[in-house]
Amino acid sequence: MAVRRASSTASHCSQSLLLLFFLYLLVCAHGVPNYSDALVKSILFFQGQRSGKLPRDQRITWRSSSALSDGAAAHVDLTGGYYDAGDNVKFNFPMAFTTTMLSWSAIEYGKRMGAQLENVRVAIRWATDYLLKCANATPGKLYVGVGDPNTDHKCWERPEDMDTVRSVYSVSAANPGSDVAGETAAALAAASIVFLRVDPMYSKLLLRTARKVMQFAVQYRGAYSDSLNSAVCPFYCSYSGYKDELLWGASWLLRATNDVTYFNLLKSLGANDSPDIFSWDNKYAGAHVLLSRRALLNKDKSFEQFNQQAEDFMCKIIPGSPSSTTQYTPGGLMYKLGQSNLQYVTSITFLLTTYAKYMQASRYTFRCGNTMVTPNTLKITAKRQVDYILGQNPMKMSYMVGYGPDFPRRIHHRGSSLPSKTSHPQEIGCDGGFQPFFYSSNPNPNILVGAIVGGPNQNDFFSDDRTDYSHSEPATYINAAIVGPLAYFSTTR
């Protein structure tokens, strides 16, 4: 009996341990996001947005080469770059911001990315090769976009079938665009840091071009929206003006060169706005966090103003802060604006993790009123946003396509929603995609792996409706900003 009891008890313990082990695996699989997997997919997404001639190692294979004559209208080569979202237009303003954020991710978090760092570099270079063409093709001009958005948005066709006019847009001394030029300079300067050691010659070209474009932005001041009107508005108007891009561009050139010229430019811009948002349009908070690095890590007192502004921004974001101006949904998602809200969530989350990183390295804390803010305060806030996006939300849905068991299947994206050239070689014209594809309730035939959509509404509800572009459309600038936080949390526990 004793032996049998012992055997029975041992068996029971073994079963209990086995059950606990399986419960542990279940929690790991469904309770804790797989940040490394999400990181891989967030970078892969950019291959689905490529314009131009695709390389042999293209991994999103339902895409094919497209827009191979871009720039012909101006007798220049403007092939390459990225389509901004679910359409077939190349808007350089958000594309340059996307490039800057990908570069910042590589600079801050590259050591945490492992093998993915090279994939990030590839994604950056696909954009910078194009931006270099835009900056260097014609003396005195900066090309800032290809494709008539008003015509394009009336069509639902694959980029491979595109038959709409590929208008070419530019800014110049007579028609300035300090905002788009400042952002382009920021992108090229940030990328020059990424390639400094792995491709020094390319890095020098990027930096030389960044200096030239920044000089243009400063010398000929004006908003590109005023010059180009309906070609960029209401799609990517410069709502915040161009001063933030001058600040942003100067901040990145200072980081890349340490040239006092750019510090003097920062000082000449005077007092800056302190908004509670960070996006492709409004760069103030990003510049303040970037510049705060010198105050915190280098103990440079001449940058304390920017550090104070970075703190003010954090106090407007943190839940429970007496100066918070940020709404959160019942499920805990930061909610800024109804249209494509996740773009603000990912961008602000990047600033949270990056400022937390600077604080931790300098053993720094600050207060929002009576609330003590530590690096962990910011990390917890950022992690909650990333986890929400990856499925820890009331809908139990990942807002990253292809990640987790449940994700958006009907995203507002032409290439994803229409059959590929392989499965449907016949051309689909401008109107040919609406019926039966756009208005269909069927899932998209092509999965745009890694794409993060606009996200749920203020009540945490998401309808997964292709016609609802404000919630179901992905965009390069949503993804670019989450790459850094995903790399951070993939190696932080």
From TrEMBL:
Family: Belongs to the glycosyl hydrolase 9 (cellulase E) family.
Origin species: Stephania japonica
GO BP terms: cellulose catabolic process
Keyword Signal part of the UniProt annotation: yes
Alphabetical keyword list: Carbohydrate metabolism, Cellulose degradation, Glycosidase, Hydrolase, Polysaccharide degradation, Signal
Catalytic activity: Endohydrolysis of (1->4)-beta-D-glucosidic linkages in cellulose, lichenin and cereal beta-D-glucans
PROSITE patterns membership: GH9_2 (PS00592), GH9_3 (PS00698)
Gene3D superfamilies: 1.50.10.10
This protein's record includes keyword Hydrolase: yes
Name recorded for this polypeptide: Endoglucanase
